[in-house]
Structures are given as C-alpha cells and as structure tokens.
Amino acid sequence: MKRRGWLGILVLSATLVAVGCSDDENVTPLTGLAPDFALKDVNPNSATHDSTISPRDYLSKASAWYFGHAT
C-alpha cells in the first residue's frame, strides 16, 4: 500500500517537472519589480514598528513577502 502512494507522488512530480520545463515561446517570464504597495508595520518587536514599508525599501536586497490570512 505504501508503494502505491509513493508511485503516485513520483508520477505527479515527474509530470509537474515536465510541464514546468516546457520550451513554449509564448510564455512570458516573471521579471521586473513587484507591484507598488505599502503596508504599516504592526509588529511591536520590529525595528520599523509603526512605519509604512514597501518593496521599494528593499530594492537592493533579497526579500520575501508573506500575506497570511486568519479567520
């Protein structure tokens, strides 16, 4: 039973890799800057607490942006 599960994962992974590696010339690469937005830093432990920050503040640095949703 465990082998069938791994086989399915292996087939799915191979399919996703094959689709992701296509040489389709009509695909537009993701390049350029992130959309312009700014958010207030509400983290009280942050050095930028209560200030407005945006991706423009980190143009020469690597950065990651996470938008979580809680219900």
Question: Could you characterize what this model shows?
Answer:
The protein has one helix and two strands; from the N terminus they run αββ. The protein has 71 residues and is mainly alpha-helical. The chain has a domain of 25 residues. A two-stranded antiparallel sheet has the order 1-2. The mean pLDDT is 76.
Task: Itemize the secondary structure elements and their pairings.
Layout: H1 2-20, E1 39-40, E2 52-53
Antiparallel strand pairs: 1-2
Helicity range = 25-40%
**In percent, how much strand structure appears in the residues?**
5-15%
Radius of gyration: 20 Å
For the record, give the distance between the C-alpha atoms at the N and C termini, rounded to a whole number. Answer: 37 Å
Number of helices: 1
